[in-house]
Amino acid sequence: xRVFYSPLHTQHNPAQEVYDGVPAPYAEVPGRVEAVADRLxxxxxxxxxxxxxxxxxxxxxxxxxxxxxVRTRSEQLAADDxxxxxxxxxxxxxxxxxxxxxxxxxxxxxxxSGAQAIVGGKRVAYSLCRPPGHHxxxxxxxxxxxxxxxxxxxxxxxARGRVAILDIDYHHGNGTQxxxxxxxxxLYVSLHxxxxxxxxxxxxxxxxxxxxxxxxxxxxxxxxxATTGDEYIETLQAALGVIAKFQPDFLLVSVGFDTxxxxxxAGLALRQEDYHDIAEHIVAAELPTxxxxxxxxxxELLPELASTFLQxxxxx
Length: 316
Ligand SMILES: [Zn+2]
Known about the structure:
This protein is of the alpha/beta class and about 325 residues long. It contains 9 helices and 10 strands. Strand 2 and strand 3 form a beta hairpin.
């Protein structure tokens, strides 16, 4: 397993989000990834600095005006400014700060370096991305996400083979689904909290299965509140069955640890040991696998959860 990490993410540190119209502390803090990085170093896992891929891969999934907007508005801000723009946004959970653009670019390079490693023959790569990406749409930021790291890496891989995306974050990856909804060469399969009661509310229902030639190449598995590890694994097996039938050349996993029972913003009931089981099932798919970090907000627990999850991948 190769692991990629960029320190640029620390430049993105908004003071607040707006929850139900009320300012609240920002849950997606730099400490999330710093705590995981420290733990991996303690586990004697080497963290590699990503290569730079430039803007071209980002342009394969995002609108040019949107990319320009994130860059120019972000870079125009003063050090302590925070901007909730009126354009190009889905919700009030992804404000811009001066460091947002360079951090988002670093996250994309982190994801692409992982993709490059598995294209080069490595069985598993883990991209410790921050900010996360799976809620970012073609021309919209939202849900702590700006550029869709997973979708950009999936495009990179799709130029070299069939790609299955497995999204195991607590939240539905509405941005990633949108990017590939009409496509039959990239399969999107997601396990997430029932959007009837959880963010992003407007997508992730089981009836959403793709459109046109993409019909059947999107699959959603919404889960009820307080779903346990055993119930989760049962659904994961069904999801992996869908992936096996697709016969992909690459598996990309959007990994979220906000499915844990003690996550402060979520509502499933997974325990630490469940992440080891989840990883073993993913390993059993026997595919070149790119793991991309998405959510997970219990900063104290994240290092343990990441270390537990990565353990079955370490020998690969
Ligand atoms: Zn999430």
